[in-house]
Amino acid sequence: MEHKAAAFSACTRLLLTWFIGLKAAEPRAAGGGWSSDSDVRLQDGGLCNIDVLDGSSLSHQQFIQRYAFSRPVILRGLTDNTRFRSSCSRSSLLEQYGDRRVRLSTANTYSYRKVDVPLQEYVDVWLRPQSADVLGSETLYFFGDTNVTEWQRLLDQYESPPYLLPHTSAALSFGIAGPGSGVPFHWHGPGFSEVIYGRKRWFLYPPDKEPHFHPNRTTLSWVTETYPHLPEDEAPLECTISPGEVLYFPDRWWHATLNLDTSVFISTFLG
Ligand SMILES: *[C@@H]1O[C@H](CO)[C@@H](O)[C@H](O)[C@H]1NC(C)=O
Ligand SMILES: *[C@@H]1O[C@H](CO)[C@@H](O)[C@H](O)[C@H]1NC(C)=O
Ligand SMILES: O=C(O)CCC(=O)C(=O)O
C-alpha cells in the first residue's frame, strides 16, 4: 500500500514537473527562445493614437499622399517575414553569428560611446532587463551600426517594407535588446521599424514640437517620470508594435522607443 502511494506520488510529481516545464517552455518557443522576463512596469502597451492599417488596404500611392511626408502610420501584414523570423531565433542567431563582433552604442540621444563585443557576449552579459536607475549613457544597446557585409546572409532574408520614398534607397539596421531598454528621443531621416520578436512601444512628436527630455536619461525613466505628468497638449503620438506590424516615421520626427520584452528588431532607413 505504502509502495503504491509512493509510486503514485512520484508519478504525480513527474507529471507536474513535465506540465510546469511545458508551461515554462511555451512563451520561450513563441518568442524564438528569447527570454520572456516579465516586468510589471512593462505589461502595459499604452494607448495607440497612430493610424493602424492593413497593408493591403493602403496602396503605395496612398501611402505617399497620406503619410510619407506628414505623419506616422503602422501597417499590418505588409510583408511576410516568417523565414527571417526563424533565422532570428536565439539558437539560430547564436549558432551563425555568436562569435561575430557587434558594435554597441550607449542608449542616449547622441550615442557618444561605442563598444565592440562578440554577439554571444552581448547576449550573455548585456541583454538584461533595464534597471530604472541606470542612465541611458551607461546602457549599451545593440542597434544602429550593422555591418551589412558581415550580416548579409541574414539581412538578405528580410523582406523590407515595399513602400520606398521617391529618390531614396534603403539601409538596414538590426538590433536586439532587453526589456525596458530603448532609445531616448532623437530624430533623423524617414524610415520603417519592425519587431521580429517582442513588443516595442513608440513615442513620436512632429519636427516642430520638441519634447522635454534629458538626453542621457532612458526612455524608461521618461515614461515613468515625465510622461504621466504631460499636459494634454504635450501628449505624444504613441503605439506599441508587435511582430507583423511595421511603423513608419517621417523625416525629422522626434521619436523614442521602449522595448516591452526582449526584442529582436530591424529598421529600414530611407536616405
Ligand atoms: C565590415 O566587415 C568586413 C568583413 O569583416 C570588414 O572588412 C569591414 O571593414 C567592416 N566594415 C565596417 C564599416 O566596419
Ligand atoms: C551626457 O553624458 C555624456 C557622456 O557621459 C557627457 O559627456 C555629457 O555631458 C552628458 N550630457 C548631459 C546633458 O548631462
Ligand atoms: O528600435 C529602436 O529601439 C530604435 C529605433 C530607432 O530609433 C530608429 O529606427 O531610428
From TrEMBL:
PROSITE patterns linked to this entry: JMJC
GO cellular component annotations of the record: nucleus
SUPFAM superfamilies: Clavaminate synthase-like
Entry-linked Gene3D superfamilies: Cupin (2.60.120.650)
A Pfam short name: Cupin_8
Top-level division of the source organism's lineage: Eukaryota
Keywords assigned by UniProt, alphabetized: Signal
Residue span(s) of domain JmjC: 150-271
Keyword Nucleus: no
Name of the protein: JmjC domain-containing protein
